[in-house]
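sry for the spam today, last one i promise. struct tokens for design, 291 residues
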């Protein structure tokens, strides 16, 4: 009998140092893509994939995340009184998206440790993980694509993307058996290899569906040389006892945790909005970029 995935985890405890000074007082997950914070795109992808519960891993200074997905009675009252019904619906939407719960990662001990922090809230069931910095435009939500593979194989699934060899050292990379149609059975994972040592050009992107066995694998892996528990190491440990699949997802990924990627994402998402598309295209056409 297939087990439905009911929960998704969003690690959001990072300091966002690549966006200083903006992130000195604003969590990087709250930086806006057009008019919505980065993290809302992630929650919407989760909900659109059919998952009703979201667990957000937070840390010190992340209370704006909780405020965003909560009701704002004062704002709603003002908008309702002024009959700003469209704005009222926009303001209410984040609190209506999903059942959101929070737990804290009190120390920066790696992505694997952040996922492990969700264990008390996830329990002994499969779950998804979404890294909010990776913003994906796709006709079928990326998490939904992974869930379809999980439902078929009842195994963990990782999102993959082909990356040029000269950029591969910035990613976790897989060695894998090609099963066709963009599906791979993973045989090994390497974190940020040198170009000449990379086992493939298939990079791991921030979307995962895990069996609950990943928790014990992370616990048994323990911290590495710099005191962090790496998710890649946990997946490698999981491979000893369970198959793990990779899917080359259909869609376009933007690294919104990088300044250039964030700017590119803003342009790409604005061009999808009818009210912005033509004025923005005209602006881009008429600029003297050589000035």
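last one done:
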């Amino acid at each position: 009998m297939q087990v439905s995935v009911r929960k998704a985890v969003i690690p959001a405890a990072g300091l966002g140092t690549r966006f200083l000074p903006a992130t000195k007082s604003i969590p990087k997950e709250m930086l806006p893509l057009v008019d919505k914070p980065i993290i809302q795109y992630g929650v919407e992808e989760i909900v659109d994939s059919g998952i009703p519960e979201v667990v957000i891993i937070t840390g010190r200074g992340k209370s704006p995340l909780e405020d965003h997905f909560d009701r704002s009675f004062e704002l709603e009252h003002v908008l309702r009184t002024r009959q700003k019904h469209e704005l009222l619906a926009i303001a209410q939407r984040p609190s209506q998206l999903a059942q959101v719960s929070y737990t804290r990662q009190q120390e920066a001990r790696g992505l694997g440790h952040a996922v492990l922090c969700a264990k008390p809230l996830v329990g002994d069931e499969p779950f998804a993980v979404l890294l909010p910095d990776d913003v994906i435009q796709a006709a079928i939500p990326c998490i939904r694509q992974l869930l379809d593979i999980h439902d078929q194989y009842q195994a963990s699934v990782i999102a993959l993307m082909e990356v040029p060899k000269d950029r591969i050292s910035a990613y976790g990379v897989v060695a894998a058996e090609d099963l066709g149609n963009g599906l791979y059975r993973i045989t090994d994972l390497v974190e940020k290899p040198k170009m000449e040592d990379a086992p493939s050009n298939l990079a791991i992107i921030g979307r995962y569906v895990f069996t609950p066995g990943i928790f014990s694998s992370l616990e048994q892996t323990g911290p590495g040389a710099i005191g962090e528990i790496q998710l890649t190491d946990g997946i490698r440990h999981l491979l000893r006892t369970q198959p793990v699949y990779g899917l080359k997802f259909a869609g376009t990924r933007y690294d919104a945790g990088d300044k250039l990627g964030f700017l590119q994402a803003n342009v790409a998402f604005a061009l999808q909005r009818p009210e912005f598309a033509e004025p923005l295209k005209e602006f881009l056409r008429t600029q003297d970029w050589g000035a």
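The first strand starts at residue 7 and ends at 11. ok im logging off now
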